[in-house]
Amino acid sequence: MDYLYFFRSLKWAIAFVILGLLSPVFAVDIEVVFVKGNAFKVSIDSEKLPLKKGMLIQEAETLKTEKDSFVIFRIKGHSTHRLDEESEIKISSLPYFYEGSDKLEQGGSFILKVGRILSDVHTEDNGESLKLKTKHTSMGVRGTKFLFGINKDDTVLLSVNEGKVIIKNDLSGNEDFVDPNQSLIVENDLNFTAKSRYDFQKEINWNVRDFSYEPKAQRLRSIIAKEFQQKKRKWVRNNIALKKDKESWIKKEKIRLEKVRELKPSQSLERRRKKLRKILKDDEQVKKKRLNPETRKIIQNIEARRDLRFRDSIRKERVRRRIQDQLKDGSLSEPTNEPKPIKPPMPKPPGGSGNTEDPTKRKEHTGSNEF
To answer: Which of 111, 195, 238, 301 is disulfide-compatible with 184, CB 3.0–4.6 A?
Structure first.
């Protein structure tokens, strides 16, 4: 009898393990695929750890590579990346999928502080799969292969091999789409230059999974700088082409939203959002505690006035709605522009001077200034 119970329990245990392995992962991690040379990750607690094959990278962690080093990492079902030598990138957020689906609910986001990254985003979703940023320049990416880099002098490079990438600058307001086999260079992380087909794109190793890749960042920078000075042209906004590309992206986004309308949101993403809201709230409270008493009192007065204005606006809104409701049900008539009737003057008593005041009640004037 005991043996029968044991085998039945074992059967159910195996079934649960298989179901667990087959169940989809909705919040994916970044996995290190290959490391050459010295590469590290810096955790949220500022702990520096050497990168190794199979290591997982979490949100808000930073990857760094030294000279003659590079690291290849991937996001399962989403993208593969190669971080070049002397580079640093922060993983702002991971991509999240809808529950039980391979459709993206939210794309990933990286911040490139220095260096270069080659990315192959292979999701088939029409939405924005990945966003890459510098301090002032950002790129929206769908399924595409591209090289993105920023030098120490804040020169930003975007070179596209496949697909289409939108690039924007927060300070200048410049915005453009870069097509396959085109490159766009942003000077001082601010000013766009005209996108063009550069020969240096042939020098780029576009195989993101090439483990035999040899980092030659200095040589590539020299080639890019030389050709850029020869072909440099002023960037001019093409409003017609920009509008056409934007309409195409908006149309694809509408199609994507229509497909995912019935899908269940990711519970992992919702937990992350709640956690972020709590962190922001805690940070705000910590900042207030660090303030000196005078500054804290000033902030409290400002917040009190703000709350008073808010309550006053709510009170006015309630009065306005109450008047509207009374106008609708007819209990209050709307004001008209007709002039008010003028009251006729009161007739004067006969034989009098018009003063109807009782002389016995008239207060005697004493000559003082008191009233």
So the answer is: 195
